[in-house]
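Most newcomers find our protein records easier to grasp once they have seen one. Sequence and backbone structure share a record, each on its own labelled line. Nothing more is needed to start thinking about how sequence determines fold. As an example, a complete record with its sequence and its structure tokens follows.
=====
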Amino acid sequence: MATDVQVPALGESITEGTLAQWLKKPGEAVAADEPIASLETDKVSVEVPSPIAGVLTEQLVQEGDTVAVGAVIARIDQGATASAAAAAAPAQSPAQEAEAATTNPSGAGENPALREDAVLNAAPPPNTDGPPTDDAITTLSPAVRRAVLEYHVDPSKIRGSGKDGRLTKDDVIAAAEAAKAAPAPAPEAKVSSPPEPQPAAPGPRPAPGNRKEERVKMTRLRQTVARRLKEAQNTAALLTTFNDVDMSAVIDARTRYKDLFEKKHGIRLGFMGFFVKAVALAAKDVPAVNGSIEGDEIIYHDYLDVSVAVSAPKGLVVPVIRDADRMTFAEIEKAIAAYGKKAKDGTLTVEEMTGGTFTISNGGVFGSLLSTPIINPPQSAVLGMHRIEERPVVKDGQIVARPMMYLALSYDHRLIDGREAVTFLVRVKEAIEDPTRLLIDL
């Protein structure tokens, strides 16, 4: 008896999603609650579990299709066997077989004129170092597929670090870097060397037909990020103010206490904890940065929910640290570490990314020197952190080298005046340069 697999509830106000990837093929056995497909919504990726143990007999939608909550996307037969279901799976038509033969005739190498979808479905000849096999490619997410083709690696030889051992884009890049670092085989000895060829005269430029383009549909998450950022530009009166901060005191504190901190709390002491505490302290003096505009009213919050921008394989996500102003350093660092792991695995929930009254974005981890971040509506301000580098500064009349970081505060000028923005940024600077202020509430 076949059982329908329906799209589960995706969170408040979310009525549909995109089927990003099938995790099981028709004919494969599945266990109860085992994920069979991955859905992308405007905010998160959600896995669709099997309601029963059995065999996946039908896939009713294709990857990339939009599906509504409650829609039937597959059927699972509780009584079928994997071998029987596989035998019942529709075979390729003669036209499909001919197309497959044309795609990679006689095991030949890749044809430059082939379209991208043909390359993705081409199988290499046996015992060659050609592109990965169709079975290996089609079970990967779109981002990982592109990385596999771009870096020319075999996914079947890479150990995945994602959930249930699945490959991530980072796994593919790491494997490609490792292959580059491997020593090249020694060249064969030559009996005689031919005369060196004379440099050829400049020839005609390559024909346009040899150049390739790739068109990839934007994910729902990327579409949502693009739409919200554009809405912020169109709605808010955006302005950015800058300052720089001497990180010497924070670096010294981390160096002095990092081992004791990790031993006691089981987590590393990072920079983000200091900045979250500094923001909480500064927001008490300038509450407008922790507020928002709703219609013709200003909403001030007596709590601080900090959205921390985290890079994930499918794009930027912004989980929320609730009541950050009441948390200890250890609690903040543990929350950030947990969110970072969930972002990498794609397991963040809608609730974990909903809300937030202020955002901190750390572009410094990617090497950014300076930027003008965009606010995350309905929030009114975002603090941008950047890389730490030694720069010459004047201290007590002497030019000395100090580890400096640029800070950027982008804000909605409709709510926050320039004086308030500068005051807030100065308070953050003072707290970071003298962390004792964080302990005695100065």
Notes: Residues 84-136 have pLDDT under 50 and may be disordered. The first strand starts at residue 2 and ends at 6.
